[in-house]
Specification:
36% helix; Acyl_CoA_acyltransferase; GNAT_N_AcTrfase_prd; GNAT family N-acetyltransferase
């Protein structure tokens, strides 16, 4: 039976915290996993191996055993999702500077054979409850803005809010997920007690609707052309829609040049809109960011 275990910490118990723990328990149960902190050396080694497999980096895994060991000793977050005794997902975060009252969630991944079971959702809700138990009010992380499933997960399923577009943030990564593409990232902030976050973690996600936005006068700032490539539009709308390719991973393998065109087009559109004062407020399952100006 899925469950959250070992959620203990220094935070005072309150109604929001109770609901956070209950939501984490429910998510783990629905995913059919147990989610808990990981500190044992052998289990930390399993985290390293899982990440190496996901990212295709056996010789240079995204996290090392020594670093994970140091993180846990220093009180940072390493969480694992287990199906029986088998680790099927993991999430790692470390604290910001003390004055910032935030945790940076650096990396999370789920084994390929459990994709679609919402194990990632269970991990993030465990991380949220863990952070709240320690009096932390916000978690931040980055993701590739071209990966539509991650955009939907982060902005809709979790109700995190975009804060900054970061061009080529990590430099060349050269793994099976990123290829030799630039590592642009969108930084999001997850305000753990925000009503929208509370609702999303309870299963009441609020996706955007491209059809509704277009009916209300939204402008297509970046669309998909007949050839499958990016098609620039207007950037002067009160509400703008910025499309991403349906399957960027497959596109990187099949047509790296076209994938790079998408990288540059999305970078230019989102950066220009945000620099002009607009905010990314949502994402539609069809693969569009909704970007809105409060003032023109």
């Amino acid at each position: 039976m899925g469950t959250v275990t070992n959620l203990t910490g220094a935070g005072a118990v309150d109604a929001d915290l109770d609901r956070a723990v209950q939501a984490a328990d429910a998510a783990a149960l629905a995913a059919g996993v147990s989610v808990r902190e990981v500190a044992d050396l052998a289990e930390l080694a399993a985290v390293v191996a899982l990440y190496a497999d996901i990212w295709g980096r056996d010789a240079n895994p995204p996290m090392t055993l020594e670093l994970l060991r140091a993180f846990t000793k220093a009180g940072n977050y390493v969480g694992g999702a287990f199906e029986g005794d088998r680790l099927v997902g993991a999430c790692v975060g470390f604290f910001h500077a003390p004055a910032e009252d935030a945790l940076h969630s650096h990396i999370a991944g789920v084994a390929g054979d459990v994709l679609g079971r919402h194990v990632g959702f269970a991990l993030k809700l465990h991380q949220r409850a863990w952070a709240m138990l320690r009096g932390v009010s916000e978690i931040a992380w980055t993701f590739d803005p071209l990966v539509s499933r991650n955009a939907y997960f982060n902005l809709v399923k979790l109700a995190a809010r975009p804060a900054e577009y970061l061009p080529n943030f990590y430099g060349a990564m050269l793994d099976t997920l990123n290829g030799d593409d630039d590592s642009d990232r969108l930084l999001v902030r997850w305000s753990l007690r925000d009503p929208a976050v509370v609702a999303a973690c309870s299963g009441s996600a609020a996706p955007s609707s491209v059809a509704d936005e277009l009916a209300a006068g939204a402008v297509v700032a970046l669309g998909i052309g007949a050839d499958g490539g990016p098609e620039p539009g207007a950037l002067d709308g009160t509400t703008s829609l910025v499309a991403v390719p349906p399957h960027i991973g497959a596109l990187r393998n099949a047509d790296p040049a076209l994938a790079q065109k998408w990288r540059l087009a999305v970078r230019e559109a989102l950066s220009a809109l945000v620099e002009d004062g607009a905010q990314i407020v949502g994402f539609d399952r069809v693969g569009c960011y909704v970007v809105r100006r409060t003032q023109k």
